[in-house]
Amino acid sequence: MAIDEGVIKFNCDWSDEELAISVPNELKIWRDKMHQLKLIGEYDDIKIGYGNISIKIAEGILISGTQTGNSYPIQSNDFALVTAYSMEHNQVTCKGKIKASAESLTHAAVYECDHTIKAIIHIHNKELWGKLIDTVPTSNRNVPYGTAKMATEIKRLFDETNIVQEKIMVMGGHEEGIIAFGKNLKEAGQLILNYAT
Is 11-196 a CATH 3.40.225.10 domain? Predict the structure, then answer.
């Protein structure tokens, strides 16, 4: 297990405040379903959370907060709103009672590549990761998670692979990491369930 698992690698401009928007119940339900399946959670031995979930809304990207893998059931204060980001400057601006997930730039890159995408679920599952690597669109193994380089790599996948049709990708340089997306949470979540159960 990489020692930097779950660590925020971007510059985070965070406003510690209550969110002015409500977190949809559907978002919490899908996140908790992934937690029940141990696809989002916390590594007991190192006490580091893994996996995250987001939706694209008019106000920005509503995403589970960093290190919330052990939160169950998930609460509204376990989510952050990303209001701005810059791949070029490796920067994320967010607000909420918690900082946005370490994967925020990755989620932003997916949303930027296809504006019909409104939901993303990032899970961890070693067996499924091993089965899908290089079978579905797979990011370069030398590109670490949560970085501007990963955002660039995602754009490459959208340009060079059938990721739009597959709606799933393996993070080659992030052991266990898989991302699924869709036009809504049900589409993204059902895709994961189809593969993982």
Answer: yes
CA torsion sign, 17 to 7 to 127 to 106? Answer: positive
Q: What is the pLDDT of residues 54-78, one digit of tens each?
A: 999 999 999 999 999 999 999 999 9
Give me the DSSP letters along 46-91: TTEEE-EEEEEETTEEEEEBTT-TT-SS--GGGEEEEEEEETTTTE
Q: DSSP state, 4?
A: T
Neighbours of 12 (CB within 10 A): 18
Name the helix (H) or strand (E) containing 179.
strand 177-182
pTM, to two decimals: 0.95
> Taking a C-beta distance cutoff of 8 angstroms, is the pair 182, 188 a contact?
yes
Element (H, E) at 16: strand 11-16
pLDDT in tens, 101-133: 989 999 999 999 999 999 999 999 999 999 999
Domain boundaries, the chain: 11-196
The neighbour count for residue 80, using CB atoms within 10 Å, is: 29
What letter does residue 27 receive in the DSSP assignment?
H
> Strand, coil or helix: what is 105?
helix
